């Protein structure tokens, strides 16, 4: 008697579990598809609008110095606390990529040209033209190319 009761209980439980699983699968799939397809295009527009590749964060740029991003061929400097500038990393003398930022200048290893971190102007030849400015935006602590 006891054994028979147990078998029925197990069968009922299995049947109920199966039914619940079927309902969950149907309901879950239907609900997920609706809102997801509606909100996805909106999300893409929101992320593409402010655009700009994030280069770095502000805490990575030393005050009075800068950092070179060879992949993007850009130098980001912070001449004064909280003021950020960006320049091309291509030396205007003969096109080498600048290699270091020290003592307030951006330095080219090829022939010794140096550029001021504040405005990219020539601090030491043989280069005669300044490094062209690049456009960046700083949002919070994020530095982005624009
Ligand atoms: S290419 Fe930079 S100093 Fe000549």
Query: Which fold does the CATH topology refer to?
Result: Rieske Iron-sulfur Protein
Classified by CATH, the class is: Mainly Beta
Helix and strand sequence: HEEEEEEEEEE
Strand proportion, as a percent range, falls in 25-35%
**Main beta sheet, described?**
4 strands, antiparallel
Please report the distance between the alpha carbons of the first and last residues. 79 Å
Counted by DSSP, the helix tally is 1
Question: From the helix content, strand content and strand pairing, which structural class follows?
Answer: alpha+beta
Overall geometry comes to: globular
Tally the structural domains.
1
Bound molecules: FE2/S2 (inorganic) cluster
Number of strands: 10
Instruction: Find the CATH superfamily.
Output: Rieske [2Fe-2S] iron-sulphur domain
Q: Which architecture does the CATH hierarchy give at level 2?
A: 3-layer Sandwich
Share of helix among residues?
Answer: 25-40%
User: Any low-confidence stretches, pLDDT <50, length ≥5?
Assistant: 1-49
Largest sheet, spatial ordering of strands: 5-6-7-8
Mean pLDDT: 77
Radius of gyration: 30 Å
InterPro entries: Rieske_2Fe-2S, Rieske_2Fe-2S_sf, Rieske_Fe-S_prot, Rieske_Fe-S_prot_C, TAT_signal
Domain Rieske: 60-145
GO molecular function, one term: 2 iron, 2 sulfur cluster binding
Organism: Streptomyces chartreusis NRRL 3882
